[in-house]
Amino acid sequence: MKINCVVTDDEPIARKGLCGYIEKIDYLSLIGECEDALQLNNLLKTEQPDLIFLDIEMPYLSGLDLLSSIQNPPKVIITSAYEKYALKGYELDVVDYLLKPIPFERFMKSVDKVYHLMKKESAKNTTEYIFVKSGKQLKKIFIEDILFVESMENYVNVFTASSKEVVYSTLKFFLDSLPGDSFLQVHRSYVVNTKYIQSIEGNTLHIATYKIPVARNLRNQVFNAILNNRLISKI
Fold first, then answer.
1. Which of 168, 178, 182, 203 is the most exposed place for a label (fewest CB within 10 A)?
2. Helix or strand or coil: residue 51?
C-alpha cells in the first residue's frame, strides 16, 4: 500500500527535512510540496493525497484555519514548532502532532500509525456487510456485528448483539461467505466470531450471554486458533 503525501511548510529547510524523511520510507510517496496553506488549497483541487504534513503558522492563512474549512480532509500530521496548538489540532481529528525539530524515529512512529489506520480502514471496506433473506425481507447484516451462527437443519440462526435472524442456508454455505480470519467453526452446528469470545470454560465458549459448545474432535484445532500464542499461563 502506497501513501501519497504532501508537505506544506513556509520554511524551506523544514520542507527539505520532511521530504528527505519521506524518501526513506518505502510506503510513502511525495506528490507535492507547498509553501503555504493557499498553495495547498489550490493543490487539493487537482490532487487527492492520502496524507498531509501541515505546518500551522504560515503567511496569509494558518494550517489549522485551512484544515477546518476542508470537507472530508485526508489524514493530517501537524508539524509545528509550537505546542500551544496541539489541543486545537486534535479537535480537528489530526492523526499526530510533531514538534520541530522532528527526530526521524518520531517521524517513523507517526507515519506507521497512519499506515495501520489506512490498512484497517481498507480491510473494513472490503467486506462490510451481507444481505440475508429472513422471512419475506432482505436484511443487511454488518459482518463485524455477527456474534455467532447456529445451524438448525436447513436453516441457520445468525446472532448479533441486537438481533437474531433465521436464514434459509446451510452452515457451510454461510461460512464460505464470511472472512476466514475472524470466523471459526467450533462445532458441526456453530461458527463463532472469535473477537467476541470472552472466556473459555472446559469445552464451552462464552460469547455475550451465550454458551457455545466446542466439538471434542475440534478442540485442539479450535483452541490453537483462538489462543494463537496469546496464552500467558499454562492450562
1. 168
2. strand
Q: What is the pTM of this model?
A: 0.56
d(CA 177, CA 89): 41
Residues 6+ apart with CB under 8 A from 154: 168, 170
CATH classification of 129-227, choosing from 3.40.605.10, 2.40.50.1020, 3.30.200.20, 2.60.40.2470?
2.40.50.1020
Number of Cβ within 10 Å of residue 52's Cβ equals 28
- Which cell numbers in the block locate residue 209? 450471554
